[in-house]
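Design request, tokens follow.
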């Protein structure tokens, strides 16, 4: 028996080798195709609209060698924990969680203390890191803007995966808060990049010359993001 995309008997996902695989029936698909989405950290199986459950199971069993190899190659998420160390803007901080009547995060020279009465430490730590990186991005962007004699209207952060920063025609700069886990010089490069867009809303040679005037070693940091940037999304709160 065959199942259409809307058939309730064909699930939206299936568990295989303790991993959830999202099923994506597509009208244009002629074959079953298994892929791994690194950004979403999930397996996706595209398949023709008329596909049976037994077809899916048989395909996954045949793809088991590839599946096992892919699982072994995946880097596990990083979950901050008590007495662990987390790098924020290039500085390693030892984490200290403590249940307390207060709800507070304190950054010391080489430690970060998180107090919470309900032991909801991770959301509180995440919010504190976001505040810290926003402050750093704002100060750095404004410093570079002064060097170019331009003005930044507003600086904001988002949890974007497709780009590290953006600049609007109105002078608003937006950054990925995940930059908090990158080396300081890499973060400064991204700021130099976006501030330079306040003059050149393109990637012309004149733009890159402006970036270099603010960050002479920008090529090295650009390469680091290209090769290591994915690691910044491994932190899970």
């Amino acid at each position: 028996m065959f199942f259409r995309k809307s058939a309730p008997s064909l699930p939206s996902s299936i568990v295989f080798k303790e991993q959830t695989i999202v099923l994506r029936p597509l009208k244009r698909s002629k074959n079953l195709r298994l892929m791994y989405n690194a950004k979403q950290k999930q397996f996706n199986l595209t398949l023709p609209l008329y596909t049976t459950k037994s077809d899916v199971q048989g395909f996954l069993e045949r793809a088991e060698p590839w599946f096992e190899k892919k699982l072994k190659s995946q880097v596990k998420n990083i979950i901050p924990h008590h007495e662990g160390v987390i790098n924020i803007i290039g500085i390693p901080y030892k984490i200290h969680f403590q249940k307390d009547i207060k709800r507070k995060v304190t950054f010391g020279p080489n430690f970060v203390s998180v107090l919470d009465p309900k032991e909801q430490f991770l959301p509180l730590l995440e919010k504190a890191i976001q505040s810290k990186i926003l402050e750093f991005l704002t100060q750095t962007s404004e410093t570079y803007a002064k060097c170019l004699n331009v003005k930044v209207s507003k600086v904001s952060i988002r949890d974007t995966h497709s780009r590290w920063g953006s600049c609007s025609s109105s002078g608003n700069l937006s950054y990925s808060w995940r930059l908090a886990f990158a080396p300081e010089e890499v973060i400064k490069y991204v700021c130099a990049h976006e501030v330079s867009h306040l003059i050149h809303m393109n990637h012309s040679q004149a733009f890159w010359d402006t970036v270099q005037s603010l960050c002479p070693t920008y090529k090295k940091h650009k390469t680091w993001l290209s090769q290591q940037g994915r690691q910044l999304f491994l932190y899970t709160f």
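Comment from the thread starter after seeing the answer: thanks! DSSP finds six helices and eleven strands in the chain.
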